[in-house]
Amino acid sequence: xxxxxxxxxxxxxxxxxAVQAANSGHPGMPMGMADAATVLxxxxxxxxxxxPAWPDRDRFVLSAGHGSMLIYSLLHLTGYExxxxxxxxxxxxxxxxxxxxxxxxLLPGVEATTGPLGQGIAMAVGMAIAERHLNAAFGDELxxxxxxxxxxxxxxxxGINHEAAGLAGHLGLGRLNVLWDDNRITIDGAxxxxxxxxxxxxxRAYGWHTVRCDGLDADDVRRALAEAAAxxxxxxxxxxxxxxxxxxxxQGTAATHGAALGTDEVAAARRALGWDWPPFEIPGDIAAAxxxxxxxxxxxxSEWRGRLAASPHKAAFERRMAGDLAEGxxxxxxxxxxxxxxxxxxxxxxxxxxxxxxxxLLPELVGGSADLTGSNNTRTKDQTPLTRDDxxxxxxxxxxxxxxxxxxxxxxxxxxxIIPYGGTFLVFSDYARPAIRLSALQxxxxxxxxxxxxxxxxxxxxxxxxxxxLTSLRLIPxxxxxxxxxxxxxxxxxxxxxxxxxxxxxxxxxxxxxPQLRDYAGRDGLRGAYRLKAAGAARRVVLLATGSEVEVxxxxxxxxxxxxxxxxxxxxPCWERFDAQDAAYRADLLPADALIVSIEAGATLGWERYTxxxxxxxxxxxxxxSAPAEDLFKHFGFTxxxxxxxxxxxxxxQGDQ
Amino acid sequence: xxxxxxxxxxxxxxxxxAVQAANSGHPGMPMGMADAATVLxxxxxxxxxxxPAWPDRDRFVLSAGHGSMLIYSLLHLTGYExxxxxxxxxxxxxxxxxxxxxxxxLLPGVEATTGPLGQGIAMAVGMAIAERHLNAAFGDELxxxxxxxxxxxxxxxxGINHEAAGLAGHLGLGRLNVLWDDNRITIDGAxxxxxxxxxxxxxRAYGWHTVRCDGLDADDVRRALAEAAAxxxxxxxxxxxxxxxxxxxxQGTAATHGAALGTDEVAAARRALGWDWPPFEIPGDIAAAxxxxxxxxxxxxSEWRGRLAASPHKAAFERRMAGDLAEGxxxxxxxxxxxxxxxxxxxxxxxxxxxxxxxxLLPELVGGSADLTGSNNTRTKDQTPLTRDDxxxxxxxxxxxxxxxxxxxxxxxxxxxIIPYGGTFLVFSDYARPAIRLSALQxxxxxxxxxxxxxxxxxxxxxxxxxxxLTSLRLIPxxxxxxxxxxxxxxxxxxxxxxxxxxxxxxxxxxxxxPQLRDYAGRDGLRGAYRLKAAGAARRVVLLATGSEVEVxxxxxxxxxxxxxxxxxxxxPCWERFDAQDAAYRADLLPADALIVSIEAGATLGWERYTxxxxxxxxxxxxxxSAPAEDLFKHFGFTxxxxxxxxxxxxxxQGDQ
Lengths: 657, 657
Description:
The structure is a homodimer. By secondary structure, chain A is of the alpha/beta class. Helix content of chain A is about 45%, strand content about 15%. The first copy, chain A, is built from 26 helices and 20 strands. The longest helix of chain A is centred in the N-terminal third of the chain and has 20 residues, at about 120-140.
């Protein structure tokens, strides 16, 4: 068997060659961490390249995602079907699964999309939570694996690592092990340009175990990884490395971080490493050794399959990991039962009611809140806390860590077996936004429960009142944003969220009570928009509204109809769903010959998609104020008294043209 | 002189009474921290209630902004003109300066808007940087003050505190002192529901000094504050307190955090505290003592005025602190000179060129980048680093801390004397977004230099390619978003950013080279949108484009004109500026009888404001891909070849109607 250094040099060669061919990419990290990664992947990581979806595999997250050639090399060398060497030759080219940063939806074996720094480690925390939770449900026979991370200085400077590490320490996630590529270099130069902290002391303050090693000495890496694996706490393994190791004239400098080395330096590195083969060629003995080491996990996998086949939990476990919902009809029946008697409640309370139906039927639902449990109404009576002493609990007190919560939820969803949901105030979606984006990009079934969705939250004032948030979230591709107007639409929003297998859903819910406006039978809300009230008189106006403003729209309609102005009310809880309806449906709701008016207590920009240049948009294009909610709705003109005259004027102006 | 406890009880009484009157608010924090805050404000804080704008005052930031009644009480009791007792009676009511959370634009003495947790401490870091920087420029005679913060558990759990504390430790900001209200309670209950960390050990790992005291024992608080003030490092003062101290049945529980105590408990607290006066009444001797203590700083202020009057720096210092720009005409002349010879460069490079003109003329410009200096082109040749050994430097290596950078810039702008700008990739505006929102809400002159503004960044792929970001930023009230198309518009964007005194500006800049499309003479870009090319043939089409797509629009126009289809090209670098133009100007650019087409390599939602329901929006409503930029522009249809046929079809459909 070749030495670790020789095996590692295959990673170095592939990395510098692929970056050179693309003339774009990051050779420094893979070259610096090649030895440590080789020890990890050949001696510690439990995986089976023949089945990247093996549920009990260890999870590996390359949090320093710019070093993507590291994972592409590892997957290729250990025998995964993809990437092929041709995929690697086409690194960073259109259509190659070897994208600039690792994308979970392009390559099996890539557990998470990384690149936005710090989020990999935070998703790994979620994976480690999922592992312990499923272990509590299914036992050591079926669930008994580790989560490994490679993180860089950037990951450890980003604020989210604080939230993630604090949560991991609190929950005692001993199966989480983070290798820190401690190369003392960032893009701008030496790390001491911008940081002076003692990272290990900081992690110990979170309750982590820390250990240090020479990341370029395989024996020392082995010692450190063994110590980490044995320790019951989460571990930070500080690996002192040299960025770009092997490139004789550039190693140890920021020049190797994010650019091709250049053909001369690549040639010099070949000489320095004793790597005599042409670009993209791995000699037979080294390739064979890698394959053999990649095959180490096959027997463990086979034994695991045996245990699964014999397990009484087999069907339940497979259903959970496949992400299939149990009890589809029963959910609908119980929702109908729950909604039979109309109630005037806040939609956050309506969401709690829906969860009261769902959580007993769906054990995969694991909830939580960023320290706003009583405000977000996210905990149901049958959920006990998930703690270090009881990982079987189904409610997580995330603490004041919105971003960490969102990333952890992504990690749980990526791990499989869990449908996570979590709450905060809608305005603090901003704190979690980079992870919400990654939910959407990674196609994760995650449900965001965002309450206090407008100036309707009242006295807390402009820092807590969402204005731009609804539409700024609607802008994120593959995210469905729901703003239900009552209990029925809230139940539909939850159904829609669970039905989605390929993306996240965000529920924007009211603090204040809202009347129940229709019955559940037609389930019209699932189309994203529908005619809630049809015009009585000849239709001249269509009112579009969401959430708490649907009630306002109904009052406006009554007044207009009283003046003989026929008016539809269209409730529009989910733009993305409406946009996906066929043209005839959309045209029927938005007729060309009517004045289309939007009413939403938020920014107007974006509503013109439906109201056009001649429509009227009633909204709020400024920050809010601190006052009781009712005063604010009056102050900012969200009342029939204020809106009706504006519509009448708009109709007159339209008539003039 | 009454005892500290007696003085502090005035804060407790005002806080519980105001919250009770509003039946909304957070009494727990002010009641717990009243003693510590009294010691701080009467014995340590340098301020003069008669002049809240005294430039050399200590800055006090209530990072735990929900405890707003603490600062309202302190301002009132120490003798600030506002809030009056009537303002406090109207706590959280429409029009009261005593908003739910402290707002810097409502009350002099409120140095920063707080409430979004963690940002107060991070802004304080910026204030402390500003103090040292101005000290380096103007000396101890004029600039010699401290920055004090009160933070809660939430502030210390949020990720941003990690970034802020790391930066403060690195820069050795010894005049920054943070009092941590260590009351072991969060909204959901005991802190041990969600955290187990050793906060003080963590802060020591950042290079901070830490000290602990009994926050309810004035002598012990005094000892700790004195120790903190004497230590050359930034200090964390852990104050063990009891939330809601004084409310006998509720203190020490989450019940006091965010709700009125109830009339019975308020009455019980009066008895427990020995506070026999009616709501909102402060007995004469206690009021007088507070006033007297509030007046302590007047003599220091007077001496400082003397030093200012005698200083050779007087005019420069006053200009800087007033935020007046020097050298207005010279800037324009030099810009014109710089732009005289057209060049094809990336707008990030154009921004560097503009900064090359500006930084020598405007010493108040302090730049930086979140570890992307060479990519953001934010450093000019005459900027040396601002370090712990040379606070006079004008370039800050912020490290990989986008959110911390943005909040620190807010702090610098709030401090005064500095116009901060800082860079990262546009996609990572998401990381900084909560602070960008606070720039806008607080009306701070901060300039965000966000480069790599589209799929034009190429190979790094979807995690690094902005899609929804431009319009999601345009949605934030009071933020001006610029996406210039060339060197001239980039210079105009910088001019506009500096002219704004009451809000932030964000520049979205290209990685790739763009041709210079016009000359600088008319400075048309300052109107936000203007006709760059007028139709030759009879106008049937108006193309709206920004940034790199203006060049594409020009090619589209040439092709359409070649087919006899008259086509305007409108360059639209700043929507907010265009929306502020008069109706005639806007109507002239967007005629009702033309097909309006938007071209922007980002989400289309929002463009309908200008293109209407019958217009055509060319954009990207999905995530990007990893490939060279030119391939992506072709792949996603941002070429004349792909766009022209779509316009021709749209014209035909329009003709059919």
